[in-house]
Amino acid sequence: MKLLVVEDHEALRGMVAAHLREHGFTTDAVGTGAEAIEAAAVTGYDAAILDLGLPDMDGLAVLRRLRAQRAAMPVLILTARDHVQHRIAGLDAGADDYILKPFELGELEARLRAVLRRPGLRQAHCYSFGDLSFDASCRAASVGPRLMELTRREAALFEALIRSGERIVVRDSLSDKLYGFDDDVSGNALEATVSRLRRKLGALQSSVRVEAVRGIGYRLRQGGEAA
């Protein structure tokens, strides 16, 4: 699951992004409204965390633009504006939750997961293919009744593939899901992650394999040997 963090305070932005990455989310972090709008226009984020006090434009204007680009994407507002009218304005503009500064990182993560578990969103974030299933809101992957232990990037790869089923997912799209703007990515990083996921599927004797489509990308297939 990929998140966008929009926060102009550099230290806080880095702290929030680092915490979310440590807890399994692929995370991009930007400091202005213009950067947020540009990032959301080219990347399919699953949720956004948005500060209202941005240096270049009002956060509510950014929220409205994000809503126009991706209507169903959950957006959590971070702000020091504590007046009730500010909270009403944020919720009316399309925010899914409103978190006042200062806040605990654990609470932010818990509220994010709670938003992603809401009935409509939960259904949208639960996937299955063959004997595989995945709940993206809590990164729970399984082969039949058996849970799979996945790293953050393995879970991001698993999610991207299971969302597409037997449709091919191109390499660039997979890399976008697995890595953020600031990640230092080696040339064979994607292949290494695919290899680890294959081993874990094999260890649990899944009937599903990850097939390489030469020069294009990867997809899931039922039965046979991994390509």
Describe this structure in words.
The chain folds into two domains: 2-119, Response regulator (Rossmann fold), CATH 3.40.50.2300; 126-222, Winged helix-like DNA-binding domain superfamily/Winged helix DNA-binding domain (Arc Repressor Mutant, subunit A), CATH 1.10.10. The radius of gyration is 18 Å and the shape is elongated. 43% of the residues lie in helices and 23% in strands. Strand 1 (2-6), helix 1 (10-22) and strand 2 (26-30) form a beta-alpha-beta unit. The chain has 227 residues and is α/β, with parallel strands linked by helices. The strands form three sheets. It has a five-stranded parallel beta sheet with strand order 2-1-3-4-5, sandwiched between helices. The chain has nine helices and twelve strands.
Strand content: 15-25%
**CATH homologous superfamily descriptor of the largest domain:** Response regulator
Q: What does the radius of gyration come to? A: 18 Å
- Tell me about the biggest sheet? 5 strands, parallel
Whole-number mean pLDDT: 87
How many runs of DSSP E, i.e. beta strands? 12
Number of helices: 9
Number of domains: 2
- Fraction in helix: 40-55%
Structural class estimated from helices and strands:
alpha/beta
Indicate the CATH topology of the largest domain: Rossmann fold
H/E series: EHEHEHEHEHHEEEEHEHHEE
